[in-house]
Amino acid sequence: MTLRLSSYLLIVLLLGRCGSEPEPETAVAAASVLARPMEWPTFDEALLQAESTGKFILIDIYAPWCGWCRRMQQEVYTNAALVSYVQDHFAYGRLNLDDAQTRHIFKGQIFTSQELGYALGAEGTPTTVFLTGDGEYITRCPGYWDLESFTKAVEFVATGAYERHSFSEFSRL
To answer: In this predicted model, what pLDDT tens digit does every residue of 122-165 receive, in sequence order?
Structure first.
């Protein structure tokens, strides 16, 4: 019975997508092309990469038990175009907000992953934090963001638009 209901729902969802309007294009296109889930360096590795490349920093703050974090990994960070864009424009890493053991040196201070996540503004998970190449705070995206919205946020930082526009202005451009 459950298999039959699942099959029926899948067919309804697929038919509902037929003939629908295409999603708006952004610099990160091809929303239907999936990649393998991103492999995440550590926070410390992201800092080292940013130091040597001058790239912006993207930090994914997550918790292992967080369903929304898993959903973001499966639905957003598997988009081939987004993954490529992030890899081209950012040094990136992850922090486990539940980890009270692993230590990091950031801005001359020692933090656990948990302390650092909160210091970077995470009030929950998932939270994505954007920093300049030298570790200065730019902005954060709290909670789950769908692919289209998250792509816009990534482009907002990578293009430097955050220096000239609010995110809502940038989203309307």
So the answer is: 999 999 999 999 999 999 999 999 999 999 999 999 999 999 99
User: Is there a contact between 90 and 58 (Cβ–Cβ < 8 Å)?
Assistant: yes
Angle of helix 80-89 relative to helix 147-158, nearest 10 degrees, comes to 20
- Beta-carbon contacts of 169 under 8 Å, excluding residues fewer than 6 positions away, are none
Sheet holding 127-131, edge to edge: 90-96, 56-62, 127-131, 137-142
The partner residues of 139 in beta bridges, in order of sequence, read 130
Burial class (CB in 10 A: 0-12, 13-18, 19+), 166: exposed
8 A C-beta contact, residue 26 and residue 152? yes
Q: Is the separation of the CB atoms in 48 and 93 below 8 Å? A: no
Secondary structure letter of residue 144 according to DSSP: -
108: tokens are 């001359």
**What's residue 172's pLDDT?**
84
- Residue of 137, 133, 132, 171 whose CA lies nearest to 151: 171
